[in-house]
Write a structure and sequence with these properties.
The structure is a single chain. It is built from five helices and five strands. With 159 residues, it is of the alpha/beta class. It has one domain: Nucleotidyltransferase, domain 5, CATH 3.30.420. The chain has a five-stranded mixed beta sheet, with helices on both faces. A hairpin with a 6-residue loop joins strand 2 (28-34) and strand 3 (41-48). It is globular. Keywords: Cytoplasm, Hydrolase, Nuclease, Ribosome biogenesis. One of its GO terms (molecular function) is nuclease activity. Residues 17-117 form the YqgF/RNase H-like domain.
Length: 159
């Protein structure tokens, strides 16, 4: 699995193939998908973690079913920019997944993504705590993926 700089990801992926965004939590994996033009990220699914092999099988099924060429994984950096245990866990997840199914991977700094999504769901959509619980992780995955897509698109317009 090549771990790539986000800005190198488009060149490594066939045109017209979508990407998946992942928000790796302790108990869940939020999954989002881009469209084939890689313009829009949409929440897709919430995988409740069980065993790594089962979680990976579900993720691979999603990847293969959508002809995904890359994963953008949210990297939970510390506020001072260093990587802590959660970031190391995300990197380990990517390495372990690569042993089963090689795929291009880029990491995206996800600091405060969950809190931004929570704020959006409360203030803009007025969702109750119970309703938020079911959508926050996959919406955070879409937030992560959309941020990465926007960064790639913005870089392409400046070159």
């Amino acid at each position: 699995m090549p771990v790539l700089d986000l800005l190198d990801l488009p060149a490594a992926c066939p045109p017209g193939t979508p990407w998946l965004g992942l928000d790796l939590g302790e108990n869940t994996i939020g999954v989002a998908a881009s469209d084939t033009s890689r313009m829009i990220a949409s929440p897709l699914e919430l995988i409740r973690k069980t065993k790594f092999t089962q979680d990976a099988e579900r993720l691979i099924k999603l990847m293969n079913g959508r002809n995904v060429s890359a994963l953008v994984i949210g990297l939970p950096m510390n506020m001072d920019g260093t990587e802590g245990p959660r970031a190391q866990s995300c990197r380990a997840f990517a390495r372990n997944l690569d042993r089963i199914q090689p795929v291009n991977v880029a990491f995206w700094d996800e600091r405060l993504s969950t809190s931004a999504v929570e704020r959006f769901l409360i203030e803009d959509l007025d969702l109750s705590r119970k309703r938020r619980a079911g959508v926050v992780d996959r919406t955070a995955a879409a937030w992560i993926l959309q941020g990465a897509l926007d960064r790639v698109r913005d870089q392409a317009t400046w070159v």
